[in-house]
């Protein structure tokens, strides 16, 4: 399927929790029920090794209602504070990492879980909100994901898949 060039704001983003993962799509949960969505073509592979049940994903929705996974947040364990208002986290695929807080006032207790991501500008790792927050209440960095896709002209390829 091919769509016209991107108009800012054309693809609204929302979040869902991952239930199961295949290489081309994943099963998701939202308050509206269980669904599935394909991965955007530029989402790194192998996907079954990068996305796991419990992760939170950002979904872009096309004008015809199709959805594609464009970002994911890891479900990480909070180990404690780090220097410069950072947070030490443990995530199964990456081990121990230090993340910057997206919102400095967010309380993250050692032993709790939080959503974290890598790859957004400004830090190697970001930590957002406690992982217990369910979609759509999860306070994650959707504006930053939208800006990353806009700044790098990635929107036009989201719903273009090879036949």
Can you count the helices?
Answer: 2
What is the strand tally?
Answer: 9
Give the SSE order as H and E letters.
Answer: EEEHEEEEEEH
Tally of separate domains: 2
- CATH superfamily heading of the largest domain: Nucleic acid-binding proteins
Overall radius of gyration: 16 Å
Strand content: 35-45%
Q: Looking at CATH, which topology of the largest domain would you report?
A: OB fold (Dihydrolipoamide Acetyltransferase, E2P)
Poorly predicted runs are 1-9
Q: Structural class, from secondary structure content?
A: mainly beta
Helix percent band: under 10%
Tell me what the CATH architecture of the largest domain is. Answer: Beta Barrel
The CATH class of the largest domain, by name, is Mainly Beta
What overall form do the CA principal axes indicate?
globular
Q: Kindly report the average pLDDT value.
A: 87
Distance between the termini: 9 Å
Taking the sheet with the most strands, its summary is: 9 strands, mixed
Structure keywords:
2 domains, 2 helices, OB fold (Dihydrolipoamide Acetyltransferase, E2P), mainly beta, 9-stranded mixed beta sheet, 9% helix, 9 strands, 163 residues
Structure description:
There is one protein chain. Strands 1, 2, 3, 4, 5, 6, 7, 8 and 9 form a nine-stranded mixed β-sheet that branches. A hairpin with a 3-residue loop joins strand 5 (about 65-80) and strand 6. This protein has two domains: about 15-70 and about 145-155, Beta Barrel (OB fold (Dihydrolipoamide Acetyltransferase, E2P)); about 75-130, OB fold (Dihydrolipoamide Acetyltransferase, E2P), CATH 2.40.50.140. The model is unreliable at about 1-10 (pLDDT under 50). The N and C termini lie close together (about 10 Å). With about 160 residues, it is mainly beta. The chain is built from two helices and nine strands. The longest helix is centred in the last third of the chain and has 10 residues, at about 140-150.
